[in-house]
Design goal:
By secondary structure, the protein is of the alpha/beta class. The chain has three domains: about 10-95, Rossmann fold; about 105-310, Mur-like, catalytic domain (UDP-N-acetylmuramoyl-L-alanine:D-glutamate ligase, 3-Layer(aba) Sandwich); about 320-465, Protein-Tyrosine Phosphatase, Chain A. The chain is about 35% helix and about 25% strand. The chain contains 14 helices and 21 strands. The chain has helices at about 20-30, 45-50, 85-90, 100-105, 120-135, 195-210, 225-230, 285-300, 305-310, 340-355, 370-380, 410-415, 430-435, 455-465, and strands at about 10-15, 35-40, 55-60, 70-75, 95-100, 110-115, 140, 155, 160-165, 180-185, 215-220, 240-245, 250-260, 260-270, 275-280, 320-330, 330-335, 360-365, 390, 420-425, 445. The strands form three sheets. Strands 8-7-9-6-10-11-12-13-14-15 form a ten-stranded mixed beta sheet, sandwiched between helices. A hairpin with a 5-residue loop joins β14 (about 260-270) and β15 (about 275-280). α5 crosses α9 (about 305-310), α11 runs parallel beside α12 (about 410-415) and α13 crosses α14 (about 455-465). It is globular, with a radius of gyration of 22 Å. It starts with 11 loop residues before the first strand and ends with a helix.
Amino acid sequence: MAPAVPSAMDRPHFIGIGGAGMSGIAKILAMRGARVAGSDARDSATARALRALGATVHIGHAAEHLADDASCVVVSSAIRADNPELARAAELGVPVVHRSDALAALMADTRPIAVAGTHGKTTTTSMLAVALRTLGLDASYAIGGDLDEPGSNAHHGTGEIFVAEADESDRSFHKYAPEVAIVLNVELDHHANYASMDEIHESFETFVDRIVPGGTLVVGEHAGARELARRVADRAELNVVTVGEAEGSDVRILRITPKGMTSEVVVDLAGHDGELAFTVSVPGRHYAHNAVAALAAGVRLGIAPADLARALGSYTGVKRRLQLKGTAAGVQVIDSYAHHPTEMTADLAALREAATDSRLLVVFQPHLFSRTQELGTEMGRALALADASVVLDIYPAREDPIPGVTSAMIIDAAVAAGADVRAEHDMAAIPEVIAGMAKPGDLVLTMGAGDVTDLGPRILARLEG
């Protein structure tokens, strides 16, 4: 694989163009006038949105999909070495570029904000993108989720700011050189690529070292993020801004007041007079912390705090982050991308706080065999926060099965924690299962990073019928 992006990206071919990260880069290149092409395993609303921008999107992977005059082939770490289009690129001598190199090239000559951390990247990046759009700054952005419609995960703007989600899973965030970086939290995850917390911290330190001289690192209150701040405290020409509820934080959260499915947040910014209050239009303390980190980052780029705080109130959520899919028979169906125990616990606690009188029913789909092997017990314990849960088989994504690693690990841990939980191996049976469990006033949460998200409309249809 080529170590850097080729200078010519006017005719790129994306393998897996429908993916969350890949489609955003493809969209920006198409908006900049590139002749974009690519392939994906199945058709989707995202693929159709790219076609509307003039991109050629093939369904399925085949060598003939790669045009002879392609200037480069863009891949992610999920693309296997035996992909026929990758083999064809080698035959033709077409340079192969990693997604992160392509995104780094797009951020050249801008003022980048890179949002990193084990959890909360998509939400925080989305909050900034929406707020900057509300302020009329027309920032470019690349996010790992859609804001309001398919294809809204990226934008090529005329402004000088570029907001990007920075993925640590395969160390690809080492390619970026941000003016401001946000690290919300640092935990052990992505066990196929990291063997220990020391490796995780070393990776994040390398990311911090890429911040431009005189730039800023915004760190959240999570213990792992504060440990990172301690490790990089001696870096020359690096400004570190701490965010949190703890006394002594540079941007201190004074109060978070839940108000149904929203929160009122009051902060004190060091160097700015008076308290600043604003609304976060999604429930949960973790989302309030994300919003304040976004506020701190924008202020470091020179945006007036009061203006940015008001604009952050215009954010109403991103798909798959506690997204209300609909209501039927008095039952609300909500979708969550949470797949790590910390994320699961935070989202379940947020819904508990927002709807105290409702029963909470969860359909959980574990994501990756390696993650389940390492964190299955903690996932089961998180499910004890629900009134009842149904656990599906593991969604493999890019991984092959690991002998002995199944959803039973999660179910056993959940039962040991006192949870009401059952297994379901047939996803098609879930709407009927939920219809037999749910009562008016209940909340149903589909949770996981795989295709569990597709169940929301099916559950609603069954409840209506």
